């Protein structure tokens, strides 16, 4: 099975990340023909997911087929369909993906398609199929087996108008050793592939795929073949044109071996569905495995029973042996691992198919099982449970996370009881160590949560913005009970919703089950700061009282920012007003929740007051009346620190611990943080960066350089840089920013004036005198530079001009390559001297262009509209006006509808609408603005195709077709509104009509660019690592 774009894994990877110890898999014991195989040698044909290695089907392309085979294939291909689908939300072992697969029609009259269970998935599914003549129709899940790797989809036969529909007959009895077969599938959902092989075995154990979904309690068919290719869900057909098996998996080590699922159980399920009967599935919560007679003898199989078995089943070479008996299940304490199965209900039994049949017909009843244990006969009577009852069919979405009862699949994998609340998507308030899945919630707010119903009742009683204690375990490490305090967000997504699977419609029905309780009013609290006794300068040590920890949580990914949560430290610049300055790598935009922790004791909410467009800092504010602690306003130096000066470095390391060192300023140099090519996001430009000679500077993303008398000489900040193409992690630079440059802006803020800065829309770099002389700067000006700036003889050249406004640049604008001599009559040799632009609508500039001096009246641009103030989420894509970083990196804006991020498993992912695209028209109607866009898309009926005219970041136009899906991906909107408690108004659209509030959001499930990084840590870099100096 393959997916859009590049070739990727054909089956989805486990959502459980690999930074925890790998699960210790039990060795798969196979018979003598297959003893060298280990779980790592096998692989399912994986769905295409995000950038994982491709796995292959070991079958050779059919060549020089006989006339009989050609006639058979011609009939079969009409039944084979390419399935394009989204699994729209993480659920159980499945992650959210968009992909393609194969299926085949098994009932043309009622419209049933057979495919793999890992295609249909355990959770919400949305998709369509394409027939051989390229007719298309929607498909809906009818059935997915709780254990075995098959599922059934439904389509409307009346939707296929231009070809006669036929069905492939299912004949599991015709799968025989030595039979020649063909696998007829779709290669990447685009072209037919026909692969040949020969059945070599009928009795191998189901391959174990490690973490995530695996089939079990069935035999698999093994085929000998010689090459690779193909896709999941393909029919395995014989010369007579019957489907004899369902393609499911193969070895990943290049060996010529492939594995097929027998069709006995799919045929039985299909017959039940045709009759309108439920597909009963029984279980005793025991996993069995086929073991050859020699191993069974070692486990205690007596000669008498072996003789009886061999007489009754002369072709058998092995028996079923208990592999895993789940705790607290029907067989717990009655059966044991290593028990050799002899009889069920008095019937000698050696095959999975017969065992399944007995259990499926005995749900709610008892069965008698005879096993041999260490040579002794042991007979037990067991209750047969309902397998569907321990396979979750509902989930709850609240506070950004999704939850359901633990499934039999997961419990079997880890040999634990089938109970507990499983975190299907660890996001929002429930993003624990990382975005990985695999967590089990033990308690919330000191209340036990043994199942989903208990979890819902506890969450109903927790008010918005509450901080509660959560205990939880990971499936890989059930020995350890983790404890965290979570901030419960019930305001960005106020609705708690339950989704219940509806096999009649093929959809999951959503119901609101609890309104958010209002937040409790904050209470003033007391605290004191730690003392740095070991620091020799008390005044410098006392600056610890000016630091607060800042946590920023973002419900939606905007502006290309790669994280949903950031933690850092800020410096209090006005304790009386609660003003704090912090890096924009921590607070990138104001659609966020801010929490400030004072003295590691008091937690208060805060709001964004100001975001600097260029200098990488933000100013936030908390309510100082809630903080009864000796918070100290930092004293900021008014004179710039010099190169070579001694200073004290005080910073916070990766463990959020304070570290202090005496150090020296090694360099002050003009840098530009490298741009991120795959997804433009905020970066600092035109700045003088300070570096120091202590190794602590590279470990600390937040801190200060402080003089012995306690004066703060520079901020030490994190600067978000580019994404590494090798590790797909984001580089952060740690640099110092001298405080004098901050003062003009901070003074306004302290006087309750929100700065309205104007800037030159250019990026500059320094040029030395040897260069400017060649470029036409006169000797007089070179002498003036030396006199004006004895420490650094430099001028500034325009390196890049921001995107032109719609009216274009006027003749007075700066151009790339201009060397700036003066602005308003002042010689410019330092970055700080460019700050003259903040307060002037026009600047009188003297520049050297083409070797000639020129006088220009250069316009500046206002910065109020550079920050995002409106975002639309449509079909899973996050859209807003192109933010400042886009304007810095592009030469032309194609529209004001810019794709900033997209949600995995959404229509935007399925149909290829990618971050950094511009949407210029909907159904041929131009959409220059977001309002135009919202107006047009609200006219489109649900589940209907429409056209989008799109332009890539590299100016390549293309036409996208997309199908609207309001059921799983409603249109939502966030609009900045100071009258709202959160500062943003939230809207949804139902049938084109505006309603208040939004559905559950998961920013962790959003990708903001190609080669997206996991929402985890960054790569730290020293100041001079790769920054453009």
From TrEMBL:
Biased composition (Acidic residues): 1017-1029
Cellular-component GO terms for this entry: nucleus
Keyword Transcription regulation: no
Record-annotated PDZ domain positions: 303-375, 873-954
Region: Disordered, residue numbers: 1-40, 1006-1029
Biased segments, Basic and acidic residues type: 20-40
GO molecular function: serine-type endopeptidase activity
Domain of life of the source: Eukaryota
Keywords, in A-Z order: Apoptosis, Hydrolase, Nucleus, Protease, Repeat
CDD domains membership: cpPDZ1_ScNma111-like (cd06786), PDZ2-4_Nma111p-like (cd06719)
Compartment annotation: Nucleus
Swiss-Prot/TrEMBL GO biological process terms: apoptotic process; proteolysis
Role according to the record: Nuclear serine protease which mediates apoptosis.
Family as reported in the entry's similarity comment: Belongs to the peptidase S1C family.
Protein name: Pro-apoptotic serine protease NMA111
UniProt organism field: Lasallia pustulata
């Amino acid at each position: 099975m393959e997916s859009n774009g590049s070739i990727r894994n054909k089956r989805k990877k486990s959502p459980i990340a690999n930074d925890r110890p790998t699960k210790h898999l039990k060795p798969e014991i196979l018979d003598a023909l297959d003893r060298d195989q280990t779980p790592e040698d096998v692989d399912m044909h994986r769905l295409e997911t995000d950038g994982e290695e491709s796995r292959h089907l070991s079958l050779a392309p059919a060549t020089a087929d006989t006339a009989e085979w050609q006639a058979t294939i011609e009939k079969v291909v009409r039944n084979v369909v390419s399935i394009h689908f989204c699994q729209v939300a993480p659920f159980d072992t499945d992650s959210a993906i968009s992909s393609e697969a194969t299926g085949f029609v098994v009932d043309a009259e009622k419209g049933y398609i057979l495919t793999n269970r890992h295609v249909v998935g355990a959770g919400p599914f949305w998709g369509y199929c394409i027939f051989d003549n390229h007719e298309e129709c929607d498909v809906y899940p009818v059935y997915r087996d709780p254990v075995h790797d098959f599922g059934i989809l439904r389509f409307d036969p009346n939707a296929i108008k231009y070809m006669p529909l036929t069905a492939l007959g299912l004949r599991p009895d015709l799968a025989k050793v030595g039979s020649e077969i063909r696998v007829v599938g779709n290669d990447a959902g685009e072209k037919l592939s026909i692969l040949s092989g020969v059945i070599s075995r009928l009795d191998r154990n189901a391959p174990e795929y490690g973490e995530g979904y695996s089939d079990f309690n069935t035999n698999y068919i093994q085929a000998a073949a010689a090459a690779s290719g193909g896709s999941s869900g393909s029919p395995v057909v014989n010369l007579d044109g019957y489907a004899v098996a369902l393609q499911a998996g193969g070895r990943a080590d290049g060996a010529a071996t492939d594995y097929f699922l027998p069709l006995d159980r799919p045929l039985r399920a299909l017959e039940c569905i045709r009759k309108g009967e439920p597909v009963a599935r029984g279980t005793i919560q025991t996993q069995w495995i086929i073991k050859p007679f020699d191993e069974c003898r070692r486990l205690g199989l007596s000669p008498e029973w072996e003789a009886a078995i061999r007489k009754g089943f002369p072709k058998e070479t092995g028996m079923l042996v208990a592999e895993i008996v789940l705790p607290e299940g029907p067989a717990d304490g009655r059966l044991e691992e290593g028990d050799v199965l002899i009889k069920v209900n008095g019937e000698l039994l050696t095959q999975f198919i017969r065992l399944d049949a007995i259990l499926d017909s005995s749900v709610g009843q008892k069965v008698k099982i005879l096993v041999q244990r260490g040579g002794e006969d042991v007979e037990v009577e067991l209750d047969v449970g309902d397998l569907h009852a321990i396979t979750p069919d509902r989930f709850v979405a609240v506070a950004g996370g999704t939850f359901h009862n633990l499934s039999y699949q997961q419990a079997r994998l880890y040999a634990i009881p089938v109970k507990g609340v499983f975190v299907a998507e660890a996001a929002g308030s429930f993003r624990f160590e990382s975005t990985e899945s695999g967590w089990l919630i033990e308690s919330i707010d000191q209340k036990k949560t043994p199942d989903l119903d208990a979890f819902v009742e506890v969450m109903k009683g927790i008010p918005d913005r509450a901080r509660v204690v959560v205990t939880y375990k990971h499936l890989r490490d059930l020995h350890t009970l983790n404890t965290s305090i979570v901030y419960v967000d019930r305001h960005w997504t106020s609705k708690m919703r339950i989704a219940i699977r509806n096999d009649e419609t093929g959809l999951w029905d959503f119901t609101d089950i609890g309104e958010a309780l209002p937040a409790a009013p904050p209470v003033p609290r007391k605290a004191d700061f730690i003392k740095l006794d070991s620091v020799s300068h008390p005044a410098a040590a006392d600056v610890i009282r000016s630091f607060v920890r800042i946590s920023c949580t973002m419900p939606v990914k905007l502006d290309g920012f790669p994280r949903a949560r950031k933690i850092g430290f800020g410096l209090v610049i006005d304790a009386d007003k609660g003003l704090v300055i912090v890096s924009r790598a921590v607070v990138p935009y104001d659609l966020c929740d801010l929490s400030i922790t004072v003295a590691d004791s008091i937690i208060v909410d805060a709001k964004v007051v100001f975001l600097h467009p260029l200098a990488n800092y933000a100013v936030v504010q908390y309510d100082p009346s809630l903080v009864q602690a000796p918070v100290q306003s930092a004293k900021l130096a008014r004179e710039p620190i010099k190169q070579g000066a001694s200073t004290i470095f005080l910073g916070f390391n990766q463990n959020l611990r304070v570290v202090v060192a005496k150090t020296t300023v090694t360099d002050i140099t003009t840098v530009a943080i490298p741009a991120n090519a795959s997804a433009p996001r905020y970066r600092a430009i035109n700045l003088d960066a300070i570096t120091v000679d202590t190794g602590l500077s590279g470990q600390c993303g937040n801190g200060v350089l402080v003089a012995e008398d306690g004066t703060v000489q520079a901020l030490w900040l994190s600067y978000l840089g580019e994404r590494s193409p090798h590790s797909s992690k984001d580089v952060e630079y740690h640099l110092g920013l001298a405080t004098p440059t901050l003062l003009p802006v901070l003074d306004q803020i302290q006087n309750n004036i929100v700065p309205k800065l104007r800037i030159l829309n250019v990026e500059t770099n320094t040029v030395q005198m040897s260069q400017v002389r060649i470029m036409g700067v006169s000797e007089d000006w070179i002498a003036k530079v030396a006199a004006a700036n004895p420490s650094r003889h430099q001028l500034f050249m325009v390196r890049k001009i921001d995107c032109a406004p719609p009216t274009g640049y006027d003749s007075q604008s700066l151009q790339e390559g201009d060397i700036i001599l003066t602005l308003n009559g002042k010689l410019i040799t330092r970055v700080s001297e460019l700050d003259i632009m903040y307060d002037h609508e026009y600047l009188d500039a003297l520049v050297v262009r083409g070797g000639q001096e020129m006088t220009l009246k250069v316009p500046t641009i206002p910065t109020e509209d550079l920050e995002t103030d409106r975002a639309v989420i449509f079909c899973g894509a996050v859209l807003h006006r192109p933010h400042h970083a886009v304007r810095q990196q592009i030469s032309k804006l194609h529209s004001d509808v810019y794709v900033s991020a997209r949600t995995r498993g959404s229509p935007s992912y399925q149909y290829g609408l990618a971050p950094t695209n511009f949407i210029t028209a909907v159904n041929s109607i131009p959409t220059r603005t977001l309002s135009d866009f919202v107006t047009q898309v609200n006219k489109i009926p649900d589940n209907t195709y429409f056209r989008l005219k799109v332009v890539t970041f590299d100016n390549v136009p293309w036409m996208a077709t997309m199908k609207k899906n309001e059921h799983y991906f409603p249109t939502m909107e966030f609009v900045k509104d100071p009258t709202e408690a959160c500062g943003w108004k939230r809207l949804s659209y139902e049938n084109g009509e505006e309603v208040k509030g939004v559905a559950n959001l998961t920013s962790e499930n959003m990708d903001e660019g190609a080669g997206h990084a996991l929402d985890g840590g960054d790569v730290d870099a020293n100041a001079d690592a790769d920054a453009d100096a």
